[in-house]
Amino acid sequence: MEEELKGLGHEIDRVDVIDHRIDGCIGCWACAEIPDEPGCVLGDGTEAIFERMIPTDAILFASPLYMWGFASQLKAFLDRCACLVKDYGGPNYKSLIGGKKSALLVTCMGPREKADLIQGIYKRFAGYAQLASVGELIVPNCTEPDQLAEDAKTQAKALARQIVG
Ligand SMILES: Cc1cc2nc3c(=O)[nH]c(=O)nc-3n(C[C@H](O)[C@H](O)[C@H](O)COP(=O)(O)O)c2cc1C
């Protein structure tokens, strides 16, 4: 997908969440008092990721399927994104990443049907964060990166085009 997007003239800022310290959200809601910034009181590496993510036009979330859901490092990051959503359900409801296009890419060992829960969570998250999701790509039977099925590569390129289209 990266190659496809670069070929189309787009800039990619890839964040590997495992390279950053992302502590678990403590649910203090101090961030709710700060309307125009993340406002998280935890001083770890997450703020630096927000600074890179907020100016972008589109966000692709990619994870291996772990226990039917997101890998824990990315799950921790999604929890921390709660500080980007302000006044959820209230009159001033907004998201600091609202309006951006988004997509989900998941690789898994099993069949596509077993990746239903992660897609459900992603769709709920996208709605909550006011993202304009263009879709999800599940790559089943995927254990060796260098043996990626040709149809998965074709689908990934199509999703890449959708996310910038
Ligand atoms: C802790 C753990 C949990 C996993 N849980 C699932 C699962 O629930 N369903 C599934 O199909 N594959 C599961 N897998 C397999 C991975 O999703 C699969 O190998 C994935 O394609 C690896 O992607 P990667 O090469 O990017 O690491 C699991 C693997 C690990 C290590």
Q: Which topology does CATH recognise?
A: Rossmann fold
Integer tally of domains: 1
Strand-residue proportion: 15-25%
Helical amount: 25-40%
Strand count, sense and closure of the main sheet?
3 strands, parallel
Could you tell me which ligands this complex binds, including any ions or cofactors? Answer: flavin mononucleotide
Termini gap: 14 Å
Structural class estimated from helices and strands: alpha/beta
Biggest sheet, spatial arrangement of strands: 1-4-5
Following the backbone from N to C, one meets helices and strands in this order, namely HHEHEEEHEH
According to CATH, the homologous superfamily is Flavodoxin domain
Number of helices: 5
Summarize the structure.
The protein is an alpha/beta fold and 165 residues long.
Task: Set out the fold topology.
Elements: H1 2-7, H2 46-53, E1 58-64, H3 72-80, E2 85-86, E3 94-95, E4 101-107, H4 116-128, E5 132-139, H5 150-164
This protein binds flavin mononucleotide.
Description of the molecule:
The structure is a single chain. The chain is α/β, with parallel strands linked by helices. The protein has one domain: Flavodoxin domain (Rossmann fold). Helices cover 31% and strands 16% of the residues. Strand 2 and strand 3 (94-95) form a beta hairpin. The longest helix has 15 residues, at 150-164. It is globular, with a radius of gyration of 16 Å.
